[in-house]
Structures are given as structure tokens and as C-alpha cells.
Design brief:
2 copies of one chain form a homodimer. The first copy, chain A, has 12 helices and 12 strands. Chain A is an alpha/beta fold. Chain A has 2 domains: 101 residues, 60s Ribosomal Protein L30, Chain: A; 155 residues, Alpha/beta knot, CATH 3.40.1280. Chains A, B: Pfam families: SpoU_methylase (PF00588).
Chain lengths: 267, 267
């Protein structure tokens, strides 16, 4: 049962986890250093707790307490109760979805664990936008993918914005970081996956042809700006494209992923 | 040829179009009232000007001028030259993509004009998020759709964030507002379109079955939160779903649109 603690001043040190949530650089630093992440909104907080992440604390305005009473009953962490104005002062924005929680990160699973039994996997190279990472996880979960692997420099799925966009998929879909960028795709090939890179390369074939009849597939996606690295593009088993209308550069990476997941799920 | 005007103070009234770009409510009000919209970044500004939107003015730091020299040569509007620090002070954020332009809105085309010759059309009811509107336009353009119709309350495709995400598709893909919400779908049916609503309704069929063999198709998409209105869901000719994994609520509307466009384009 969470202990309820009323707090009335913005500079109370117990609110340190919740400061300046709109300052991406500051938050990345602070969250990595303290091994924490932030969840926002009743639904997301509930999924994080039920997904087994231990809470460090909760931050609530009085009228948000009822919706999460069952979750608060499960957790020994303190629940800081503040006015909505104080919540806004501390976080730097109007918390319109209510509840916030600061949660402890857990050690990431191994690649072996994440791939155990998986038949359809997403592999993200250097996606930089948290919204895209969240949207990709949500689409992967909805369209029947089993796991997600992230290159070392891919944006953090446990960043607040990514979690919010993923609608909790980050807590249900198994994912981890790849320890080795250079040989990541050959390693997947040696594990029996056919690696299919989405790219605009001239030898790319339509994605439905690229995945037709395959058993274990790893769909490989590159950065928003410049796409995949040369290394990954060259070490993928196949290169695939989503056929597009003449004169259009490309699809947004989250949209392309949704289409590719749909097609791959029906291979 | 744009006239170059150096400006050194943030309160110069000539910079009024560029104030507080992160304040969504203020901007919606100001832009509607003055019939203007903002484009951000060299690529987007170029597409807006080449798309025929008259510039009211440009706002540039000196090092951004070269990239748009050809575009500035085409326009009689003034180009305000400011330091990057001053640009940040006026707009309220770090303008990392460079160039800004304030452009004049044009009268929207009629529904007749937008549908002339169209075979695949997107119809957006009350999408509220500008990122989603932009992503949907980009996917529609990339996946071969011919036009977009917006319900009266759908978010503005000419809002800065929507334009940026659409990567200029808002300037190339024909679109307009529907004058009448209530009979919008029956009107499309009477024009020979089969209206296919994406929904989680129990009688929805998989989207590939719903569009198979159809000639003129209007894909109908609802709001992020509660989906389509009852009126639109009931007046659509067909209800379709993107098959999803068990236990997942739904796809993000932009991801669902990308999949539905892909499937519809290959009907």
C-alpha cells in the first residue's frame, strides 16, 4: 500500500524525479544516471506496474487518486500528492493525463531470451525520434511481432514520450539492446532469421515478395534521416521497399514499419 | 526578388507572424485570423513557394540564406534577417531546420474539384493531432491516393507541425474541407465511391476483403480517442478492420492509415 505524502512546495527534494519533463537532454541524462523512467497517465502507469516495474514514487493531484487506487494498493512506494498547479510547476507542462510515476529500470534481457521462440522480429538501427520508437513498438505488438532488438544508438523505448505513444506495448513486447552493432545482422542470420532491410536501395524488391514464404524473419529499419548504415544495408540477407507513388521521397519510418509488419505477418 | 531587411530587436512588429510558435492555441487563433500559415525548413519552404502559396515574409539567419537563394529570387516578399539567438527568442524554440516563412492561405478548392478524376480518397473525421494529420497526408501521397477530404473539425493540415511531418505532401496532394458533416458519406456514395470506414465495430471485415475489386474507394478514418462518430460509422457503405494480435487495443491512426492505404492501393 503506497504511503500518501502531501507536498506543497516545488523545491521539495522528493520531487526530483519529476523535474523539467520537457527538457529532453536533461531528462535523458538524469534518467540514465539514476536508472529510472517516467510513466504518464493512468493507463500507462497501470501497465508499467502490472508489467513488473517497481515504482520509486507516484505523483498525483487529489482527483487522480481514485482511478489508480488499485495500483497504489499494490505498491510500497510513496505517493506524493500535490495540487495540479504544483505538478505543472515541477514538470514544466500541464499534466492533462493525470497520474505520473517514477519507475525503476530493470536489467535488459539477453538477446537469447528475447529471441526465444520468436518468428517475427523488428530490428531498429538508429531511430532518433521517441515518437517513432513508440509508434513502431505499438505497431509491432498490434500486428503480431514477437520481439524488438535495438542497435546501441537507437532512442530509448522507456523515454516518457515513447512509452506514451507505444500505449504500453513497451511493457508487453519483449525487447533489448544489441550488444554488438557491427555483426548484428550476420548474427541473426546464423540464428536462422532471414534479415530483410527496408531501404530505397536500387536492388530492393517489393516487401511482399521479399518476405513471401519465409519462416523466421527479422525486419530491419534505419534512421529517419539517412536510413540504414552501409554496413547494415550490405549485411542484410534481402533488401525490400514499399512500392510508392512517383515523385515521393519515402514514407515516415513508423508508417513504413506498420505496412511492412502487416505484410510480413501475412507472409 | 525578396528584399533583405536586417532586424535586431525581438519586439519589432514586422516579426509578429513568427511569435511563440510553440503555443498551439495562440497560433491557431492568430493564423486563422490573419489567413496565414508558417513553413519551417528549407525543403518545406521551397515546396510551399513552388506549390503556389504567396509568401508574406521570410525569417532567416544569415547562414540559411544560401540554401534558399533561388526561392528568395522568385518572391517579392521581404526577407527578415536575424541572428539565430533572436530567431529563438521570437519563436520560442531553437529553429534547427533553418528557414521560416509566413505564407498566405488560399481559398480551399471545392469538393468537386478535389474529387475530379480521383479513384482513391482519404476522408478524415475529427483527427485532433497535427502530427497524425501530417503523417496521414504523407502516407496517402506516397501510397498513391488522389485526394483528402477533412471533416469540419479535423485538425489543420497547414499547421506548422502538420506540414513538417507531411514533408510537403500538403502542397501536392489535393485536399479540402467538407462543407457538410452530416451527409458527407452518403454524398460520396452518390458520387460513385464506396465508403469504407476503419473501425473496431463487431461487423467490421478485414480491410483487404472490404476493398477487394472496388473501383472508387473512400477510406474513412476517425478520431484518435473515440474513433468515428456513430453517424459516420453507420452511414459508411462498409466497415473494415486491420486484423490485430489478441489483447491489443488498436493501432495508432497514422499507422492504421498507412496499412489501409497500402492494401487499398493494391485492391
Amino acid at each position: 500500500m503506497a504511503e500518501f505524502v502531501e507536498i506543497a512546495t516545488a523545491d521539495d527534494p522528493r520531487l526530483a524525479d519529476y523535474r523539467d519533463l520537457r527538457d529532453v537532454e536533461l531528462r535523458k541524462h538524469l534518467e540514465a544516471e539514476h536508472g529510472l523512467f517516467l510513466a504518464e497517465g493512468e493507463k500507462v502507469v497501470r501497465r508499467a506496474i502490472l508489467g513488473g516495474y517497481p515504482a520509486r514514487s507516484f505523483l498525483m493531484a487529489p482527483r487522480w487518486l481514485d482511478g489508480l487506487a488499485d495500483v497504489l494498493a499494490l505498491s510500497p512506494a510513496p505517493c506524493y500528492v500535490v495540487s495540479e498547479a504544483l505538478a505543472e510547476e515541477v514538470t514544466g507542462f500541464h499534466v492533462h493525463r493525470g497520474a505520473l510515476a517514477s519507475l525503476e529500470r530493470r536489467p535488459l534481457p539477453t538477446v537469447d531470451d528475447v529471441l526465444d521462440g520468436a518468428r517475427s522480429v523488428l530490428v531498429l538501427e538508429d531511430i532518433v525520434d521517441h515518437t517513432n520508437v513508440g509508434a513502431i513498438l505499438r505497431s509491432g505488438a498490434a500486428l503480431g511481432f514477437d520481439a524488438v532488438l535495438l542497435a546501441p544508438r537507437c532512442a530509448d523505448p522507456l523515454y516518457r514520450r515513447a512509452i506514451k505513444v507505444a500505449m504500453g506495448a513497451v511493457f508487453s513486447l519483449p525487447w533489448t539492446r544489441l550488444p554488438d552493432w557491427y555483426d548484428a545482422l550476420p548474427d541473426l542470420t546464423s540464428r536462422g532469421f532471414t534479415t530483410v532491410a527496408l531501404t530505397l536501395a536500387p536492388d530492393a524488391v517489393p516487401v511482399d515478395e521479399a518476405v513471401a514464404g519465409l519462416d523466421k524473419v527479422a525486419l530491419v529499419l534505419g534512421s529517419e534521416g539517412h536510413g540504414l548504415s552501409e554496413r547494415w544495408e550490405q549485411t542484410a540477407d534481402r533488401r525490400a521497399i514499399i512500392p510508392m507513388a512517383a515523385g515521393i521521397d519515402s514514407l515516415n519510418v513508423a508508417a513504413a514499419t506498420a505496412v511492412a509488419c502487416y505484410v510480413t505477418a501475412r507472409r
